[in-house]
Amino acid sequence: MRPSGAEKSSLEPVAPARVLRRRLVAISASVLIGALLMALKFYAFHLTRSAAILSDALESIINVVAGLFAMGSILLAAKPPDVSHPYGHGKIEFFSAGFEGALIVLAALGIFKTAWTNLSQSRGLPHLDLGVLLLAATAVVNLALGLMLVRTGKKSHSLTLVADGRHVLTDVLTSTGVVAGLLLIRLTGWMWIDSGIAFVVGLYIMTTGICLVKRSFLGLMDTSDPELLSEVTSLLKRHRRPLWIDIHQLRAFRTGDRIHIDFHLVLPRDLSLETAHRQARIIETVIARHYGGRASVLIHMDPCIDPECPACARSACELRDNAFESQNAWSIDELVQPQTTRKKRRDDA
User: Fold this and answer.
1) At the top level of CATH, which class does the domain 5-220 belong to?
2) Which strand ranges, in their side-by-side order, compose the sheet holding 295-303?
């Protein structure tokens, strides 16, 4: 089967080497730029002795460490499946995202401690104008870097890059909040604002970290992915053939940039093994083209039973007991159910 003109562009395979190169360039930029910005923030702290700027600089250390960890996970996730890891190494990306989330939480705790310590030590902030200017510049650079990482991560299906990009974007909000607080101090002279802003930013950072840890946990547990299941269901419906009587127990999950799909395909019971296998190969080809060779598919073929005759569109069948009425409407809710559950629901109806 060849894709139609409308589908052809979306089914073009993406070269794995090109995807890996794109990921490595993005994460390398994250580490190098992050290290430079971290040094700039610590210099701003040296000038101003601001607790809020120190908190922002401490959070930048986490950016660099997490970026190095992310780089290692991307290299490991790119390794092909082997005997020891038949499903590939993609789940390392969930560990990486969870690790980064945990580091963000630790950074927030460090911010709280620093802010609390400095709250009772009200003092002036020297070179405040220069410190604000340096911090604002780091925020602008981090904004461009974070958006680039998230965009590249989504295009290359890398949770690690998306997590790193969102981490960098939280750093932008941190810096923005600190700049706003320092400008307010400049206008009012209220020194307590320095620690107050640090507390607020710390709370936001902690929330982001907890969300990343939660997402990592869900990925490691192979939690159902409604978006992926919807995409697979739509793909099967678009290419449905008369011999495909029904599908049940559809499962799909991601590990890195790899997608794993398995389901039961109901076929007429008088088909030869060769014909049944050919139908399965058609589905495998459709899915492989759609995901650019990044999907592995396991299809269990079931023979039809008499109650399924009304849903079978095969015109020539000597075993038919009932006339064809209409094919079953395939929806996510129907396709993910085991056959016994679907049969019970239909009987109850």
Assistant:
1) mainly alpha
2) 246-255, 258-267, 295-303
